[in-house]
From TrEMBL:
Keyword Acetylation applies: no
InterPro entries, per database record: HAD-like_sf, HAD-SF_hydro_IA, HAD_sf, S-2-haloacid_dehalogenase
Pfam (any one): Hydrolase
UniProt-recorded Gene Ontology molecular function terms: hydrolase activity
Organism for this UniProt entry: Immundisolibacter cernigliae
Protein name: Haloacid dehalogenase
Keywords associated with the record: Hydrolase
NCBIfam families associated with the record: HAD-SF-IA-v1, HAD-SF-IA-v3
Record SUPFAM superfamilies: HAD-like (SSF56784)
Repressor among keywords: no
């Protein structure tokens, strides 16, 4: 039986459309510098690394926030602020500085050409566990929606977030293609929800095991080739 045509494509954001590690590192450094200027007791006690560790520890204290990276970061900053004799407003200000920097990303060179090519003929959307804002990163003109773990209440690879994205796209899961870099969160999760999948393997990694994606590409230009040849 012939596969039904693809009506929509969802894209993971971090490490699929841009490299996330340098973005987060820069955002944390900028937040730390802002704290040093305005609320010095906090950065004197907590280095950038210590604040990151505190955020990770918060997950153990608040597993209910596992799907909400913004809330985890904010609550950990609030704890640090309280320990240093500051109010929650300090944490909120610091997080605002970090969030702004977190959305200053450098798109991979293939992103704009490929999304521009596809946006006129398919519904494109974002699908993320993170807290990037597609308007702030400049993709709101190409991605019609962005489904986040924070708004849905569950994170990838839970099928629920993929089902929510399919609903946002206005297409059944078996006519949605998900494109992402993470074998577990993106490929396995999307497959479990009934989507077709493409693994973006920019760094030449070996497949770690488990059900494979329908296709593998080294950059998004390969996605255009797959669609043109009807391979997904």
């Amino acid at each position: 039986m012939l596969a039904l045509p693809i009506l929509a494509i969802t894209f993971d954001l971090d490490d699929t459309l841009w490299a996330i590690d340098p973005v987060i590192e820069r955002a944390e450094q900028r937040m730390h510098a802002w704290l040093a200027e305005h609320y010095p007791r906090l950065p004197e006690r907590y280095s950038v690394t210590a604040l990151r560790t505190l955020r990770d520890d918060m997950l153990g204290l608040r597993p209910d926030l596992a799907h909400d990276l913004s809330a985890l970061r904010l609550e950990s900053l609030a704890m640090a602020a309280q320990r240093c004799g500051y109010g929650r407003d300090v944490a909120e200000g610091a997080f605002g500085v970090m969030l702004q920097a977190r959305n200053e990303v450098e798109l991979f060179a293939d992103v704009l050409p490929v999304l521009s090519e596809l946006s006129g003929r398919l519904t494109l959307g974002g699908l993320t566990n993170g807290n990037a804002d597609i308007a702030l990163v400049g993709l709101d003109g190409l991605l019609r929606f962005c489904t986040s773990a924070r708004e849905v209440g569950v994170a990838k690879p839970h099928p629920g977030i993929f089902e929510a994205a399919s609903s946002a796209a206005g297409a059944p899961p078996n006519q949605v293609l998900h494109v992402g870099d993470d074998p577990q969160r993106d490929v396995h999760g999307a497959r479990a929800a009934g989507m077709r999948t493409v693994w973006v393997n920019r760094n030449g990694q070996t497949w770690p095991g488990g059900p494979q994606a329908d296709a593998e590409i080294s950059d998004l230009f390969g996605l255009l080739d797959l669609l043109e040849q009807g391979l997904v």
